[in-house]
Amino acid sequence: MPAHGRAGSIAGMSTLHAVLQAQRLTKHYGRREALAGVDLDVPPGRVVGLVGPNGAGKSTLLQLACGLIEPSAGTLRVLGARPAADAAHLARVGFVAQDAPLYAGLTVAEHLRMGARMNTGWDDPMARDRVARAGLPPDQRAGRLSGGQRAQLALTLAVAKRPELLILDEPAAALDPLARDAFLRGLLESVAQLGAGAILSSHLLADVERVCDHLIVLAGARVQLAGDVAALLAAHRRVPPGAPLSPDAERIHGDVVRGTAGAPVALADLVLAYLNRAAR
């Protein structure tokens, strides 16, 4: 099923609070500006694709949303509260980092027992079911798992706490096609089972198109485009360069135009048009 057809299916199942609200959100690392006055309002019940080039601020935004770092200016609210405001809020957010950080010397089963001790809302039947379906040997140490298996275990640890929001920072970037396919299927199954929202940072536009129904394009430390995928695709069309446009239409880049009639535009072409405009 195309990702942009999913929004209505889970929108009523999540928290009533917006998943993420940012106002003039800014983050500096010394003299470098990673985020510059970002405004965002992501509705509940969405699977959000966060895309942009290296250095665009994607990881910074996700780390801010997890409460791992503090903003330099502006405000950010996640599920209606300050990120990592307290233990109860931490329990509402699951995070999967790019390198799937695990304890190499612990077995799969020991990771699950640790998850149960650290999370009061831990769903052990869910965790054991995911491990079994992913083919993870319970007695295998994490350091001896394949990249795909480590990603599946990291996802299991995030979803078995039954969060309202999953945040995933390039979790499938280093996986081979089969492992990435299995990971994305697991992600969609988990989101549907939990009735949760998710934010997925990825360079792989095919993955974003497959699983996401909301899009955020970051470039140059700023939001270039944000909204539900279906609405964004409906608002943009392909019109040959040099063709006349209506007064209220805007040519984004190349043949991608906003606010006019024309041929449908693919999601990848839409993203690339905004990235090219930002680079220009």
From TrEMBL:
The name of this protein is ABC transporter ATP-binding protein
Which taxonomic lineage is given here? Bacteria, Bacillati, Actinomycetota, Actinomycetes, Micromonosporales
What Pfam families has UniProt attached to this entry?
A: ABC_tran
Keywords for this protein: ATP-binding, Nucleotide-binding, Transport
Gene3D superfamilies named among the record's database cross-references? P-loop containing nucleotide triphosphate hydrolases
List, for all copies, the residue spans of the domain called ABC transporter.
20-245
| SMART domains, alphabetized | AAA
InterPro entries (alphabetical): AAA+_ATPase, ABC_transporter-like_ATP-bd, ABC_Transporter_VariousFunc, P-loop_NTPase
List the GO molecular function terms.
ATP binding
Specify the species.
Answer: Dactylosporangium salmoneum
